[in-house]
Amino acid sequence: MDDVKKKLVERGFSGDLDDSAEALEFYSHDASMFELVPQLVIKPKSSKDVQEAVKLVAEEKKNNPDLSLTARSAGTDMSGAAINDSIIVDFNAYMREIISVKGDTAVTQPGVFFRDFDVATGDYLLPSYPASRDLASVGGMVNNNSGGEKSLQYGKTDSYVPALKFVFADGIERDVTPLNKEELDTKMEQDDFEGKVYRELFELIEKNYDAIKAAKPKVSKDSTGYHMWKVWDRETGIFDLTQMIIGAQGTLGFVTEVTFKLVPRPKHSGLLVLFMKDINGLGELITTVLKHTPATFESFDDQTLLLVMKFMPSFLKMLGPVKFVHFLFTLIPDGLQLLHGFPKLVLMIEFNGETEADVRRKIVSLHKELAPFKARYEINGFEEDPTEAAGEKFWIMRRNSFRLLRSKVKDKHTAPFIDDLIVNPEHLPEFLPQIRAIIKKYDLLATIAGHMGDGNFHIIPLMKLEDPKDRAKLLPAMKEVNELVLKYGGSLSGEHNDGLVRGPWLEQMYGAEIVGIFREAKTIFDPDAIFNPHKKANADWGYSFSHIRDKF
Ligand SMILES: Cc1cc2nc3c(=O)[nH]c(=O)nc-3n(C[C@H](O)[C@H](O)[C@H](O)COP(=O)(O)OP(=O)(O)OC[C@H]3O[C@@H](n4cnc5c(N)ncnc54)[C@H](O)[C@@H]3O)c2cc1C
Q: What's this model's pTM, rounded to 2 decimal places?
């Protein structure tokens, strides 16, 4: 890579170029179970740096066909999409400026951490934040089309990005916004790479219009494939290229600036918590809860709860002493509750409102209907009844269990390979026992937590991936889970996206015709294959499997 480094400097690249052993080791992992050691890490300081890097790789590709670029922001990707064996472009090192915040509109560079962005946006909120809200960047959220606990009410990141700046494969940054037909026609007449992309993509979508529209997954959240059904709409006459880029995992080009449309931050909220000893009656319960249109409807299982209790010291390290003491203190009433029998599922139902009375009315109304389940509730962090639990601990368990698992539980490691399935909630009473049966069949120690209201579950097995016996379980278990999800009309990923882990199964989900269209679209954007190879529609299980970590 000395040659590439030299040429980048000659082109005026102003950021860092790092091929130290420590950097290559650090960037060879994200939060997935894969490992790919890069040859060079570059840390651009500006969009100009990004553009020069893309131009250089596009030129050098002829002499060095294996050269490629993979974007990385905070590197919390669970699908293996933020790693690569060539060049990593780290947006989180310098490109973290929040350019402007005016009311409900914020313009920012992609590398900023969500936690910093969230402070800067004041009375407004980007509501699609993931459970990794303390770790992830907004650029990663855009490129994974992330969602989280508030997606039930607000949807995912693709609903909050009216404009992007995007570096195309010719190394030029351009604005991307929705266009009307007249504006699209003008774009398509351009005699440059951008004009070609619009022209060819429009033709591809027009030619396969009905098939593409019909391919849209029939679930409330999805992060698989390319969302081409959202790009061109004959009825509205709108052509929206942002919808192609959001969730593309940096396989089409690089996002250098994002405009976000925000929502007013909810003023008051309250949480209702339910411990379910068995899941009989879950179907009816889900229907009842959803009728009340809660802001969030989350859950975690007995394994998560057991894990939190078993690994209290690790939790202490992760949360810090103050939060941990608060956590323990507030756990006491629930500890007593647990003496009555360990729950199979803990459900968390949150309501928001303009006033405390508003929230109270909503919670009390659902609470009455759920009387047989003995639900507890609190409003605005103040306990409704002193014997009732404070809600924060449930959020801590829900949001941090994966982090806890990742911090090496004895000799086992997190193996996120069936971590993000989604089926419509009405199927859950039938679906969940079958998922549990597969987990049992393969003798996987796994936690299940997720977004009950959307039917989106994160199943995180703990395995010894370096042991061939455990590794041999991955493919058959994944196949069984995928078949089950697809039998119920679900999607393989509600939020975490495809990367190396789910990309290989897109054909199983969409069929060969649609995946062929995805590949054509990728080639339109990236004719020389310079962006994030082996991910999404170009993933292959043989390749992915051969890059599973064997050292931890
Ligand atoms: C504990 C934990 C909990 C999680 N919970 C959730 C959850 O609830 N919901 C959810 O959606 N995800 C979740 N994730 C996955 C991940 O944290 C999110 O998807 C997050 O938004 C990724 O942000 P990041 O900055 O870490 O992105 P990265 O990992 O750096 O990158 C993600 C993808 O975006 C691409 N990318 C990054 N920057 C750019 C750019 N500027 N231009 C083009 N492409 C780019 C990368 O190449 C990669 O493909 C979780 C992960 C962990 C570890």
A: 0.92
